[in-house]
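testing teh design pipeline on a random one, pls ignore if ur not involved
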């Protein structure tokens, strides 16, 4: 680590810094200069934070500290983390699409969605049973009973399910009954919830907080990585001044996250778009930017959806996106699930 000192730093300032460095069991080399002296700090810097050194009065700049997100950092693990999901592997050349309704509304709706998603060759359906709604008067989800319904749909169809947890008390049951769990944008910095999902051995989709930086996002992931290595980062759009769509999909974040971390990165074009029309271009942009997969809202009948109907795709629109993804995926050397051929019975 290199500490660049302020122009007016005195010998007393340097001595003070040396005592501080020694107290932390670190070595140093001082380079005095008329204009700007430097202190190079050597040794095990893993416990050091930039903030601790930057706040010293004599210090102007701090360089060369390891990234604060130690476990998520690519220097911690050079090869990309691969997370098996069904027969595919997230983080490999497979592009994984997880699709389904915003919320589970009934067993019938969930079953219809599962069959539609499966007909496109997909193995995982999203469906939330705990809904974080802006208004307490909006549909709040089917709760723990919904988890049991999801588990029955899973049994009946063989589909894997992905669902959100909002409360530490529900994590254990969700991890038992669902295949992939999700921490939503509003809970990205719910540290107790992050610690709780660190205790389960299920893949966890961590969505970027709508007003959080990439650094904060990765430090949130770090909480889960303390105990659970199966962390999937999801860019879902951030709040900006733009009002023409719901959120601004930060495509640049996908590129940064892929460079900075070994974790798989997916994108949710639905919550970024807020409307059906924009889901396709955002989905394709995310994949072109390097995302390993997508989380998409599709509903058997969006006009009757109890939440997020405006952005939920009709099955035919979703089919069209899947076809486009196969083309873009092929250009990028990535494979996308193929639709399941319809069986024509003999003599029929
Ligand atoms: C969701 O995916 O169901 C959801 C609520 O999204 P977000 O947390 O990104 O708003
Ligand atoms: Mn939704």
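output:
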């Amino acid at each position: 680590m290199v500490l660049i000192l302020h122009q007016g730093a005195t010998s007393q300032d340097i001595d003070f810094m040396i005592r501080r460095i020694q107290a932390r069991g670190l070595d140093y080399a001082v380079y005095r200069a008329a204009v700007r002296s430097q202190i190079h700090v050597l040794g095990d810097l893993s416990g050091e934070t930039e903030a601790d050194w930057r706040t010293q009065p004599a210090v102007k700049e701090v360089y060369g500290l390891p990234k604060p997100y130690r476990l998520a950092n690519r220097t911690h693990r050079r090869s990309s983390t691969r997370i098996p999901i069904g027969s595919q592997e997230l983080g490999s050349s497979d592009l994984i699409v997880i699709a389904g309704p915003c919320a589970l509304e009934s067993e019938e709706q969930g079953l219809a969605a599962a069959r539609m998603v499966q007909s496109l060759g997909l193995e995982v359906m999203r469906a939330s049973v705990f809904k974080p709604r802006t208004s307490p008067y909006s549909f709040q989800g089917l709760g723990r009973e919904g988890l049991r319904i999801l588990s029955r749909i899973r049994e009946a169809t063989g589909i894997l399910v992905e669902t959100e947890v909002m409360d530490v008390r529900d994590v254990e049951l969700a991890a038992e009954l669902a295949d992939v769990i999700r921490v939503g944008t509003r809970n990205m910095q719910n540290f107790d919830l992050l610690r709780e999902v660190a205790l389960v051995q299920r893949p966890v989709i961590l969505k970027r907080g709508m007003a959080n930086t990439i650094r904060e996002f990765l430090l949130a992931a770090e909480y889960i990585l303390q105990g659970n290595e199966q962390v999937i980062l999801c860019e879902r759009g951030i709040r900006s001044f733009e009002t023409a769509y719901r959120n601004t999909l930060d495509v640049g974040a996908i590129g940064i996250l892929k460079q900075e971390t070994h974790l798989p990165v997916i994108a949710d074009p639905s919550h970024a778009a807020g409307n059906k029309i924009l889901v396709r271009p955002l989905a394709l942009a995310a994949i072109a930017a390097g995302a390993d997969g997508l989380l998409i809202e599709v509903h058997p009948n969006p006009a009757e959806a109890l939440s997020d109907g405006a952005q939920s795709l009709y099955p035919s629109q979703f089919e069209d996106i899947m076809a486009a993804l196969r083309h873009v995926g092929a250009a990028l050397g990535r494979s996308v699930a193929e639709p399941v051929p319809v069986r024509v019975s003999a003599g029929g």
